[in-house]
Design brief:
Length: 168
């Protein structure tokens, strides 16, 4: 024989269930940030850590036949950027056109962030926004760092305030 439960007991149990359900929804909803094991930089450029050099948010912004380098370099010890080689790539990442080389002789004091856009560093070539450039940076002490660097549109509002690459 079953006993009828008092109405107060049933109402209390429903209230408790609703509170627990509400807490679960609040905790598991889309609020907050998501962790990932993969490195992720929420920026347009590329990054790397290699042989004592940190490269952050590196990208190119074309201006005629030159492109302004944008990004930050941080060396763990005093170093210098002695040479740059830029090879434009087609959409299938095959080389196109000719590679260009420049010698910026940019000093990198240990532990200091050096903004490439402030230095006026440029590379020459036929750079197409939306495609990549294989850029090799030669450092005096840290050796070579090669990255696939995106070419951004000079019409992008984020890059319109950059000085002209032609004046460098």
């Amino acid at each position: 024989m079953s006993r009828a439960r008092p109405l107060k007991f049933v109402a209390g149990r429903r209230l408790l269930s609703a509170v627990v359900l509400g807490a679960c929804v609040a905790v598991t909803s889309g609020c907050g940030s998501f962790a990932t094991l993969a490195p992720y930089t929420p920026a347009a450029g590329v990054q790397t850590n290699q042989d004592g050099i940190k490269v952050r948010n590196l990208l190119l912004v074309p201006d005629g036949d030159q492109a302004r380098m944008v990004g930050t370099l941080i060396a763990s010890e005093n170093d210098s950027l002695t040479n740059l080689t830029a090879q434009p790539l087609k959409p299938d990442n095959e080389p196109t056109g000719s590679a260009s080389t420049s010698s910026p002789d940019l000093q990198l004091p240990a532990g200091e962030a050096v903004s490439l856009s402030d230095t006026g560093a440029t590379v020459t070539g036929d750079f197409v926004p939306g495609l990549l450039v294989e850029l090799t940076m030669n450092f005096e002490k840290s050796g070579d760092v090669t990255l696939m660097v995106p070419v951004m549109s000079p019409d992008d509002p984020d890059f319109q305030s950059l000085p002209s690459a032609q004046s460098s």
